Amino acid sequence: MAGAPDIVLVSLGTTMGLREADVALARQITAAGATCRVVRATMGASASLRRRMALTDVVEGLAARRAARSGAGAVIYSSVTAALLQPARTPAAVRFDATAALNRPGLGGAWQRRRERPVFARASLLLPWSEEAQRSALAAASPSAPPSVVLAPPVPFGSPRRTGGPDVVAYAGDPLKRGIDLLYEAWRTARPKDGRLAVAGLERGEAMRRLARAGVSEPPGVEWMGEVPREHWLDTVASARLFVNASRHEDWGLAQMEALSAGTPLVTVPSCGANVALPLAAELAPELVAPERTAEALARALRAGLALDEPARKRYAAAAERLLEPYRDEELRRRVADEVLPVLLRG
Question: pTM to 2 decimals?
Fold first, then answer.
């Protein structure tokens, strides 16, 4: 790209889902007629310091500040963390799946919660992924809250349904946050004969080290996929009988939304947070949503999902496709063109 772009998108990209969301936004901006450069933050040797929440956010925030030193007419920070330590500049937007007020409780998130208030208040535009995140940000920025546009990441159409995949697939980039201990206990109880549970997002060796520290043993029939290319991930989700979520907290629920888009029934616990997938799952098949976050409740939901016949799966997939219409790329591109760029590029 010759010259300075209209917009620089400062991306932390700490997970596969966040990286995909940033690439999708850049494409939407380009489709609307503006130029956009994605600048990824790199942490180098300081990445080893990311052990506690408060210090992790400092390391990532400083990395994003270094990445933002690129000339542009406007900047979009792709998360609250990416914006926390930035100098004041305008025009600037903050895009986020959740606020620190929602996902940084306790002492470990005290400075982040305090810092995000002026960050939100001075922004030219807020771009929350969900209405719950929007309410939280506007409350933090009050009484001088900037305009905001709910702009979720696009949910792609899933791969065509096929057979031969695992019985159940799950994502566990952070196995403890994702509740793999709970999932393992439920899987141990509900696993059908020769059933397979595929877990993506982390290599087995690292997962076993983390789980051993938590005193969790591995049940039979588990295969760790590690980090996989996106197309392979989506193909695996489309070929599974079920997608299961046991997360303690969900900032949005991207992997679950991808499962719904693939027509793969979603079995889930009631994860707290701005979890947009949860009410959709409850509307589609309430028997697949555990009423509480326990292994017994999740095992019952897993059994109900595994008992679905093919006609029921087809009905589920058709209903899920209708519910996901507001999250498709065409609608989101319209919002970028009509509601986002006029604010960031005016004048």
Answer: 0.81
